[in-house]
TrEMBL record, chain A:
Organism: Denitromonas halophila
Keyword field contains Ligase: no
Origin organism lineage: Bacteria, Pseudomonadati, Pseudomonadota, Betaproteobacteria, Rhodocyclales
Xref: NCBIfam families: PQQ_PqqD (TIGR03859), PRK02079.1 (NF002535)
The protein's role, per its UniProt record: Functions as a PqqA binding protein and presents PqqA to PqqE, in the pyrroloquinoline quinone (PQQ) biosynthetic pathway.
Family: Belongs to the PqqD family.
Molecular function (Gene Ontology), one example: quinone binding
GO terms of biological process kind: pyrroloquinoline quinone biosynthetic process
Protein name: PqqA binding protein
Automatic annotation (TrEMBL), chain B:
Organism: Denitromonas halophila
Any one of the GO BP annotations: pyrroloquinoline quinone biosynthetic process
Family: Belongs to the radical SAM superfamily. PqqE family.
Reaction(s) catalysed by this chain's protein: [PQQ precursor protein] + S-adenosyl-L-methionine = E-Y cross-linked-[PQQ precursor protein] + 5'-deoxyadenosine + L-methionine + H(+)
Top-rank taxon, per record: Bacteria
Role description: Catalyzes the cross-linking of a glutamate residue and a tyrosine residue in the PqqA protein as part of the biosynthesis of pyrroloquinoline quinone (PQQ).
Entry note: cofactor: Binds 1 [4Fe-4S] cluster. The cluster is coordinated with 3 cysteines and an exchangeable S-adenosyl-L-methionine.
Record Pfam families: Radical_SAM, SPASM
Subunit record text: Interacts with PqqD. The interaction is necessary for activity of PqqE.
Keyword terms: 4Fe-4S, Iron, Iron-sulfur, Metal-binding, Oxidoreductase, PQQ biosynthesis, S-adenosyl-L-methionine
Protein name stated in the entry: PqqA peptide cyclase
C-alpha cells in the first residue's frame, strides 16, 4: 500500500535546529535528525500535493529529473515509520 | 578534551521540578535522600526560565518536565509556555495526580506537546499496593482527559516481579485507553528499587514469558500501538550504554538546581556537580569536572579499554559500577567480564526461587523513610 497525498503525521513536528544545522522530526521523547534530501521531501508532505506533483516540484527546485523511484522509496519508509500519513 | 572530541549539545533536558510526590512507589529512581531537598530548596520560576533559555541556546530540543510529581508545581504552565515558545518539544512525565480538566486545558494552551502517564499495573489492588495510594481510578480518568485534548499518549509501566505476570492485561489496557506508545520499562535497580531488589527482580521464566506475550501482541496489534520492552540489564551479559554516554545527550537538573549527566549520578562520591544557580548551563555542559569526568575512555579500566565492545556500551553505567563494585570507574558489574559480575549473578540466582524471595517488607518511597535512611 503506497501513499497518494502524503502529509506529516500529527504526532510529529518538523523544525530546523540551528545547533545541529539540520532539520529534525520531533515526537514524544524522541528525535530523528534528517539528511538534506529527506528534509526536502518531508517539507513537501503537507497534504496539498500528490506524489507525482511532489516529485515534479522537487525536480524543478533542484533542476533535475528521475527522482521518482528514490522519492517513492523514501515515502514508503516514512509511512512505515508512521512519519507521514494519507492527507 | 581536545576540540575534536568536544561533545555535541545536550539534546535532552530533564527538568526535575520537585521531589514532592503524592505517590510512594517502591521502585522510584529519585535518590533515597530526596527528603533533604525541601520545597524551600527548589529552584523558583525565574531560575527555571533561565535554565530553559540557556539550554535551548546550546541546542537542547527535547524537554521533559518530571519529578517527583511536576503537577505539584503551580508554575508548570508558565514553564511549559516558555519551553514551547523557545521551540522545545515539551513532555510532561506524570503520575496523573493533579491533572484536572482545567489544568489539562491550561497546559494545552501553554503548548504542551505530550504527556507520559505512568501506571503501576492494571490490577487496581496491586496498583494501589505498589504506589501506596489510591490513584488507579484517577489515572483512567486522566488518560481520557489526555486523549480528549488531542495529545499523543505514552503509557509507561514499570515492570517487575510483582506485576510482570500481568503483562497481557497491561497491554490490553493501553489499547483500551488509546495509547500510541507503551513503554514496558523493566525496573532498573537504583535508589529505592535497589533497596527492594530481591522483592522486585523477576525470574528468568517470568521475563521470558513476558517477552513472548509482548511479541504476540506486537504481531497482533501492528502499527496501532508501539510497544517498547526494556530488558532488565541484570539478565544481560553486556551492560547498557547508559544515558547514551555520560554527558553525551542528557542533562538533568534536579529540584535544587544541581546539574547531573543522569538523574542518579549525585550518588557518586568524590565528584562535584555544578548548580545552575551559580554556573551557566554552557559552562556546566562543556567545562565542569562532573560532566567531563567519564567522557571519552581515559577513565576506563583496562578491562573496558581493551574490550572490542567498548564503543557499544562505553563500559556501562557509572552508578551501577559504584553501587555494586564500589568503584564508579570499574566496569559495570552487569558485564560478564567485570570482576564483580558475581554480585549480579547472585541476585539473579535468588530471583529464580519460586514465590516471594524476600520476607522483608517493601520499602516505600516517602519522606519519613528517606529521613531514616539518610538523616
Amino acid at each position: 500500500m503506497s501513499i497518494d497525498t502524503p502529509t506529516l503525521a500529527s504526532r510529529f513536528r518538523m523544525q530546523w535546529e540551528e545547533a545541529q544545522q539540520a532539520w529534525v522530526l520531533l515526537y514524544p521523547e524522541g528525535m530523528v535528525k534528517l539528511n538534506a534530501s529527506a528534509a526536502e521531501i518531508l517539507k513537501r508532505c503537507d497534504g496539498t500535493r500528490d506524489v507525482p506533483a511532489l516529485v515534479a516540484d522537487l525536480e524543478t527546485a533542484f533542476d533535475t529529473t528521475g527522482l521518482e523511484p528514490d522519492v517513492r522509496a523514501f515515502l514508503d519508509m516514512a509511512r512505515q515509520q508512521q512519519w507521514i500519513t494519507e492527507a | 578534551m581536545t576540540a575534536t572530541d568536544r561533545p555535541g549539545p545536550p539534546l535532552w533536558l530533564l527538568a526535575e521540578l520537585t521531589y514532592r510526590c503524592p505517590l510512594h512507589c517502591a521502585f522510584c529512581y529519585n535518590p533515597v535522600d530526596f527528603a533533604r531537598t525541601s520545597a524551600d530548596d527548589e529552584l523558583d520560576t525565574e531560575a527555571w526560565l533561565r535554565v530553559l533559555n540557556e539550554a535551548r541556546v546550546l541546542g537542547s530540543v527535547q524537554c521533559g518536565f518530571s519529578g517527583g510529581e511536576p503537577l505539584v508545581r503551580d508554575d508548570l504552565e508558565v514553564l511549559v509556555a516558555e519551553a514551547h515558545r523557545l521551540g522545545y518539544y515539551t513532555n510532561l512525565l506524570t503520575s496523573g495526580v493533579g491533572l484536572t480538566e482545567d489544568r489539562a486545558e491550561a497546559l494545552k494552551r501553554a503548548g504542551l506537546d505530550h504527556i507520559q502517564l505512568s501506571f503501576q499495573d492494571t490490577t487496581k489492588e496491586l496498583n494501589d499496593f505498589l504506589s501506596h495510594t489510591r490513584t488507579f481510578d484517577l489515572k483512567q480518568k486522566v488518560a481520557h482527559t489526555i486523549k480528549a485534548n488531542g495529545w499523543p499518549m505514552v503509557m509507561n509501566c514499570v515492570i517487575h516481579r510483582l506485576n510482570i505476570d500481568h503483562i497481557g492485561q497491561i497491554i490490553e489496557m493501553a489499547v483500551a485507553l488509546g495509547a500510541e506508545y507503551l513503554e514496558l520499562a523493566n525496573n532498573q535497580y537504583y535508589s529505592w528499587a535497589l533497596l527492594n531488589r530481591d522483592q522486585l527482580l523477576p525470574s528468568r521464566e517470568q521475563l521470558e514469558r513476558a517477552e513472548r506475550i509482548t511479541n504476540e501482541y506486537r504481531a497482533k496489534l501492528g502499527d496501532k500501538l508501539r510497544i517498547f520492552f526494556v530488558v532488565p540489564d541484570y539478565y544481560e551479559t553486556r551492560p547498557k550504554k547508559c544515558m547514551n554516554g555520560w554527558g553525551n545527550v542528557f542533562l538533568t537538573v534536579t529540584p535544587d538546581g544541581t546539574a547531573l549527566p543522569c538523574h542518579t549520578a549525585k550518588m557518586l562520591p568524590g565528584l562535584s556537580f555544578p548548580n545552575v544557580r551559580e554556573t551557566s548551563v554552557g559552562e556546566i555542559w562543556y567545562d565542569s569536572e562532573g560532566f567531563n569526568r567519564y567522557r571519552g575512555d581515559g577513565w576506563m579500566s583496562d578491562t573496558c579499554k581493551t574490550c572490542p565492545d567498548k564503543e557499544k556500551d562505553l563500559g556501562g553505567c557509572r552508578c551501577q559500577a559504584f553501587m555494586l563494585a564500589g568503584d564508579a570507574a570499574a566496569p559495570d558489574p552487569v558485564c560478564d567480564k567485570s570482576p564483580a559480575h558475581q554480585v549480579v549473578l547472585d541476585a539473579v540466582a535468588r530471583a529464580q526461587r519460586p514465590g516471594a524471595v524476600s520476607t522483608a517488607p517493601l520499602v516505600f518511597r516517602d519522606p519519613k523513610a528517606s529521613r531514616q535512611i539518610a538523616p
